[in-house]
Design goal:
22% strand, single chain, four-stranded mixed sheet, alpha/beta, 9 strands, globular
Length: 197
C-alpha cells in the first residue's frame, strides 16, 4: 500500500488558508485532514473532533509534558494550538495523504521535521490593509483581537521564505487553481515515504 504524503498550509489569520484547505479536501486527492488541538473556545458551528480538538489548558499542558505533540505554540497568551502525533498516525494508518492547516510557526516546524517529505505552502494576503478588511468582515472577533492579529500577521509574513511555495490570495478562484496545481504536482512527483515517522 502507498504511504501518504504531507501537505502543509500556513498563513496569517484571515489570509484564506482554511477556505483553500476546504477546497482541496473537496477534491479527489485522498486527503485526511489533520485536526489541530486548541485551548480556545469553539467559534460559531465549530465541532470538537471535526474542526479542532478543544482541550482545557490543563489537558493541553499535560499532553505537552507527555510529548504527545508534533508541534505546539502559545499563539496568544493563554491560547495554545498544536498538532497531536496521534493525528498523523491516524491518517497515515488510513493510507491517506495528510493535509495540515496550521499557523506559520507550526507549519515551519512541521516542514523542518519532515523536510522533503512535506510540501509547505504559505498563503499570503495581497496587503496588510486587505487582511484587516477581511478580519473585520468576518465578524468573529472584537476590534482589540483584530488589532492583535494584524500586529502578529506583520511578523508572520517574515516566515514566508521558510515555505516551498508562496501563493498570494488576491482572487480566491486564482488561489484555488494555483494551490490545486502545486499540490497535484507534489502528490504525483514526490517519492512515497515508508512510515509515519
Amino acid at each position: 500500500m502507498k504511504e501518504g504524503k504531507l501537505v502543509i498550509f500556513s498563513a496569517p489569520s484571515g489570509a484564506g488558508k482554511t477556505t483553500i484547505v476546504k477546497h482541496l479536501l473537496s477534491l479527489d486527492l485522498n486527503f485526511g485532514f489533520s485536526i489541530s488541538a486548541t485551548t480556545r473556545k469553539p467559534r460559531g458551528a465549530e465541532q470538537d473532533g471535526k474542526d479542532y480538538y478543544f482541550l482545557s489548558p490543563e489537558d493541553f499542558r499535560s499532553r505537552i509534558d507527555h510529548d504527545e505533540f508534533l508541534e505546539w505554540e502559545e499563539v496568544y497568551p493563554g491560547c495554545l494550538y498544536g498538532t497531536l502525533k496521534s493525528e498523523v498516525d491516524r491518517i497515515c494508518k488510513n493510507g491517506q495523504n495528510i493535509l495540515f492547516d496550521v499557523d506559520v510557526v507550526g507549519g515551519s516546524n512541521i516542514k523542518k521535521y519532515y523536510r522533503e517529505k512535506a510540501l509547505a505552502v504559505f498563503i499570503q494576503p495581497p496587503s496588510i490593509q486587505e487582511l484587516e478588511n477581511r478580519l473585520i468582515a468576518r465578524s468573529t472577533d472584537h476590534i482589540e483581537v483584530i488589532k492583535s492579529r494584524i500586529a502578529k500577521a506583520e511578523h508572520e509574513l517574515s516566515y514566508a521564505n521558510l515555505f516551498d511555495i508562496i501563493i498570494i490570495n488576491d482572487r480566491l478562484d486564482d488561489a484555488f487553481r494555483e494551490a490545486e496545481d502545486k499540490v497535484r504536482q507534489f502528490l504525483e512527483k514526490s517519492p512515497d515515504w515508508k512510515n509515519c515517522n
